[in-house]
Structures are given as structure tokens and as C-alpha cells.
Amino acid sequence: MYAIKAVFSCFPPLHRRRLFLFVMVLVVIFLIVQIHQQKTMENMSIAAIIMNIGKNTYDALSGSEIQFDRRVNGIWFNLSNSDFRFYVYSAFYDDRPSLLSLPVIRLTAVSDPYAEFSKRNVTRLYCVLRKDTEVKVVEMKGEPKPIGFGWPLNKINAREYIYTCPTLEGMIPTSVSIVKSKTEYSAAEVPVTLPKKPETKRDFCVCVQAAYGTLDPYRIIEWMELQKILGVSLVGVYVLSASETVLKVFKHYSDEKFVDLRKIDYMYTSEPSAKEFWLHLTPAINDCIYRHMYEFKRMVIVDFDEFIMPRKHQNLLDLVSYLDEVSTAERSPHVNFVFRNNYFFFDLETTRNTSEHLTFLKFRKKVAVSPEGYSVKSIINPQACTHMHNHYCWGVTKNYTSQGITKSVDPEIALNQHYKKCHFSQKECQHQLEDATQDDIMLRFKDRLSRNVRGKVKQILD
User: Fold this and answer.
1) For the segment 131-189, what is each residue's pLDDT rounded down to a tens digit?
2) End-to-end alpha carbon distance in the chain
3) Position 6 pLDDT exceeds 80
4) CB atoms within 10 A of CB 30
């Protein structure tokens, strides 16, 4: 303080005032810079850290660790600005030959409805591509592709999308940002993931919508073991919320390398409304598809309370091989297959002397097959699908547009078996339950499934 007074005393009074004002301006500028840097660090969402692949502690698992590829605990990257909200869960480098174009960057995102952008004088979006010190700004071509029907986010409508950024020849970006003008600066960077490309592809991966709410750990074990019997090699699991016991089950299968276990957070840190989880479900599915699109020949899109059951074949491989042969013989190739829904309601009579933990064997009465298109589930070609809803693939790459996008499979060949309580009106439930029939197709797996489930329950939960 004395040193400062001594310095000021060396100047005439007029100059002292000017010097004081100059110093105050410098102080204000310094504070603004500090605040900006702090906000920048917050917006970056630890982007600098996540460029290094490493292990992150999954808090709910009592100190156990899970490998996250370029992720930090399921965060969403906030690319919002004064005109629109924009949250990105992940970005992938897509160089599938079926694009018939240069590679692109796919962003799994939730934003304000894109139709609203033009009303806010946002007529173009730009992609900021970064690789080391190289930065390129390119205009986004076309509109984003929806992967859901939207839901209020913090009481304002939002929707799930796949946004697509073009790339430049010879440049594989390590991160990407979205801005509304070429001159706009974005501190937030989303790391670009390069999907694995093994020499040999496996047959089936299951991609499940984000896990939330009350899940039964015994039913999860039974479901996992059935997927193995059906020929699945990997399940992509994204946890939005789950009990410690369910997380313990997921962790076990992750350690077995049967589950790729990841976390997906709510976009807002405040307590979400009862239905905001809807916005997080299909982003998990699409992240799974893009992450593993080169590793598997086909991907199965189902939930934890259902599975696609071949009626005339022993497993999914035999089923899909048959469907492909039929398409070839009929000269009507189809890219993806959808399977009719069939409810096995918990309201129906159960099989006696069957363990409570064997839902698929205990509940062997079903109602009539659901109407065409209702709550169907899919097996897709990951080299073709560009944006996936929970039920259908909603678009394919250019090389597949001349083919039929989706083929509905005859219920006599395969069904999506769906296990839950009847959720229709009381009158409709009564009508359906009265017409229920016995279905013993699961008995062919009885011994193997029972043995495997008992072993896992003892290993994980007892």
C-alpha cells in the first residue's frame, strides 16, 4: 500500500486522477477476463481431460472403476447460445463406404426444435472442426435428423436429433463445435470418437435405451443370459438412474466384457421433471449404434423387458440368415427388419413350480399379437442406419436408399416378446386377458436358462 502511494505521489494531481482511472480500467478488464475463463472452463465440461482415454470412478459402485472411452461420467456438452439451447452427448467420425461421400461427423444431441431456429433469425449453422492447432469452419448441410418426438426440457420444448457436420479431405477432426456464424467463438468442444474397426466382425450387439427407474436385478440377469443364448456378443448399457444392486449386476457383466457400460446424465443439474428422461433414451441408442457400427454385422434394438424370439430357428443368426435368403430369393432386399409386438402380461396366470426369478419361464400366457406397427422392435444393419428411434430406423445412407428400408417379419417366424403389467384401460385389458393363449416356446431354453440364471444369481447377488 505504501509503495502504491509513493508511486502516485510522483505525479501531478491531474495525472494522478488519470492514472487512477487507467488502473481501475485495467482491474475491471482483468476481472472480466477471469470470469470469462471460469465460464469457459465450465462450458468445456472438462473437454481437455476427456481427450485422454482412461478410467473414471463410477461413484455409485463403491469405488469400482469402469472404462469410459472419451467420456467423463456421462456429461452432456453445452453448446447453447443466446438464440437456442444445444446439448451434445457424443460425436462420431462416420466414414462408412455406404455414404458415397466424404466422411461426416455425427452428433447425438438434444436441442430446441430445429423448426424454431429460423424464427430466431438463425438460418445457418456452422461446424468448427479442430485437429491440434488446425481449425476449420464449415457450413452444416441439410437439417438434423430427429431420433425422437421431443419433450419439455426445463418446461420448454426440446427434441432429440442427429446433427451432421461435413469434413474436409485429409482432416480427421479431434473435436467439433457448433456455432451460428463463421465469426462466433465457442469455448465448448465435443471430442470426436473414432469407432473401433476390428478385422473380424461379430454377429449381434444389443443397443438398449437409457436405463432409468425401477429395474429388477433378477430380471436383468435373466435377460442377459437369454441374450447370450440367442447369440448376442455385446450389450450397450447407458445408465440414467438405477439402484446400487442393479448397478452391481451391470458391473458384473461389464467385467465379463458382455456389457459396454456407460453413464448418461440429465442435461440439467437441478431435479428433473417426471418425464424429462424421455429425451435421454434414444440418444443412448444412437450412441451405441455409432460406437459399435464397425464391430457387428447387425444390431438389435430392444428394451430390458422384451426380446426378439425366433419361432422357427434356434438363435438370431439362423433367423437373420433365413430372412436374408428370403429377401434375396424374392429379389426384394431389405436393410432392416422389424418384429411385431406380443405382450405376456403379468396379470395372466403363471406357471406353477417355477422360480420367481425366471420371468420368461413363469409367464407363458400371452394375448393376441399387437397390430402392425405398434411397439415393434428392430434388427438393423449398422452400415446403413443413420438415425434410429426406439422402434424403427428412420433413415439410411445413400447406398441403401434404393432398397426397402424396413421389412416387417411374419409373426409366425419371429416375435418381440414383451413382459409387463397390462397398461391399457381396464375394459381393454379385460378384453385382451380373456383371449389369452398358452405359449410354451421358452421351454426349449428351460434347462440352460435356469442353470445359467441360478449360477449368476449366486455369483452376483447371494
Assistant:
1) 999 999 999 989 999 999 999 998 899 999 999 999 999 999 999 999 999 888 887 89
2) 69
3) no
4) 10
> Residues 219-260: pLDDT tens digits?
999 999 999 999 999 999 999 999 999 999 999 999 999 999
What is the spatial distance between Cα 462 and Cα 441, in angstroms, rounded to a whole number?
30
Q: Which residues pair with 309 in a beta bridge?
A: 415
Integer Cα distance of 68 and 260 in angstroms? 9
> Rounded to whole angstroms, how far apart are CA atoms 239 and 212?
7
What ranges in 298-419 are assigned the alpha helix state H?
316-329, 359-362
pLDDT for the residue 95: 98
Name residues whose C-beta falls within 8 Å of residue 340's C-beta, 6 or more positions apart in sequence. Answer: 369, 370, 372, 376, 408, 409, 411, 415, 416
Report the alpha-carbon angle 263-264-268, nearest 5.
140
Q: What nine digits make up the cell of 172?
A: 480427421
Amino acid at 46: I
Q: CB–CB of 299/217 below 8 Å?
A: no
- Check: CB of residue 208 under 8 Å from CB of residue 302: yes
3-state helix, strand, coil in the chain (%, to 5): 30, 30, 40
- Measure the CA–CA gap between 90 and 162, rounded to whole angstroms: 10
DSSP code string of 233-244: -EEEEEESS--H
Identify the sign of the CA torsion 231, 234, 239, 243: positive
Rounded CA gap, 239 and 251, in Å? Answer: 11
Residue 349: DSSP 8-state: P
C-alpha distances out from residue 150 to 153, 156, 207, 291, 411, Å? 9, 10, 20, 23, 31
Query: pLDDT digits over 104-113, tens only?
Result: 999 999 999 9
Dist CA 61 CA 126 (whole Å): 40
Locus of grid cell 466382425:
201
Q: What is the pLDDT of residues 265-321, one digit of tens each?
A: 998 765 655 688 999 999 999 999 999 999 999 999 999 999 999 999 999 999 999
Grid cell, residue 13, equals 494531481
DSSP state of 265: -
Cα–Cα dist 154/369, whole Å: 38
Supply the pTM of this predicted model. Answer: 0.85
Q: Which helix (H) or strand (E) holds 246?
A: helix 244-255
Contacts of 265 (CB under 8 A, 6+ apart): 73, 74, 75, 76, 240
- What was the pLDDT predicted at 70? 44
The 10 Å Cβ neighbour count of residue 24 is: 10
Residue 203 CB partners (closer than 8 Å, separation 6+): 231, 233, 296, 297, 298, 316, 317
